[in-house]
Design a protein that fits this description.
Helix 7 links the parallel strand 4 and strand 5. An 8-stranded parallel barrel has the order 1-2-3-4-5-6-7-8, surrounded by 7 helices. By secondary structure, the chain is an alpha/beta fold. 47% of the residues lie in helices and 9% in strands. The longest helix is centred in the C-terminal third of the chain and has 15 residues.
Amino acid sequence: MSRTVGITETIYRDAHQSLWATRMETGDMTAVAEAVDEIGYHSLECWGGATFDSALRFLQEDPWFRLRRLRAVIRKTPLQMLLRGQNILGYRHYPDDVVQEFCHRAVTNGIGIVRVFDALNDIRNMETAVKASKEAGAHVQGTVVYTTSPVHDVDSFLHTARGLVEMGSDSICIKDMAGLLKPYDAEKLVKRFKAELPVPLQLHCHYTSGLASMTYLKAVEAGVDVVDTALSALALGSSQPPTESIVSALAETPYATGLDLKKITEINRYYREAAGKYREFAVSKEIDTTVLSYQIPGGMISNLRSQLNAQKAGDRYGDVLAEVPKVRAELGYPPLVTPTSQIVGAQAVLNVLTGQRYSVISKEVRDYVKGLYGRPPAPVNPEIKKMVIGDEEPVSQRPADLLEPLLDRARREIIDYYQQEEDVLTYILFPEVALEFFKARAGRST
């Protein structure tokens, strides 16, 4: 049966987050945004993930202003964002009032599709964001984080997806952040999802292991509706498969995207030339098959190297690579995606550098074992649990139920710098960085 496969372009979010340390400036997005809008993409992923923090921290740009500028130029193509559920765009849980307000502001500022995920696939941590985004008028894409372990299989992923559909998700995304999903496993997974779920299905893969293009082809044949790609100037490596290659591969088949390869190539030329501007931040596009053994996504690898180099222990990198799977297993096999990738990675570094495992335990690991990030996919190893929290029992309720409302207090705290209601959310998510930005902004406006 003939059907058009949709393409979500990631160059304005995940692609430059993966390969250029999230440094693309808004001007380089808007420069060809009108042409991008004419391509006919299913959506344009342009916000969320690490872009919010990086815009403030490194570019001195207001991420809300970026979103409004893009929406002003891109009128036909839905703008899409990545939201970490109850973590929003940060690294810890935030109260419901903050999540609700953030989702409302994101949609009113221009986001049309909100992709919501939780690092543990704990749908309790996605519920508030799903409901708030729907109430604001967005298309909500519930997300299943893909990984491999003794406790993850097709049935467990399908259970998560069913819960997200029952919660109100308009579509489902399978998020393969480490490039672990193999072609024939994707075929099985997609067939089950399409047979048992009444909503569209999208697939997001990173190219890290070299599998992603093959995986996309089998997924398309199995019935997936949309795949995520990046213009070739910012594809491959830890980014996504090239848009041009996927469009070309599906052309003149029952799954043709209908996109004009010539127009796409013209836009890509701009980013090939712009690459020189970001050369100091660029990472290798090489394939790294070690991810198939250690399950460490590209961004996590660079973080581990940075942590070790800061401690003048770069020669221990191999030891840390071997330690990561051990820590992950002991903590109940969390998928390695923000923030659990940072939690597991940092503890692995501590274990290696101290020479005595868990002699130093990070606050984040303590909170994780206490259940404050959600329910682990499998029980935490009892011995590790004892070492981390003693006889204390982990919380059983939804972690956000333990948090007090925060909006009103934060609004009072930044009254001297307040210019827009969105500033309150910026401050809550990244307090120190936001205050520095607000002070610089005030200086620029005088």
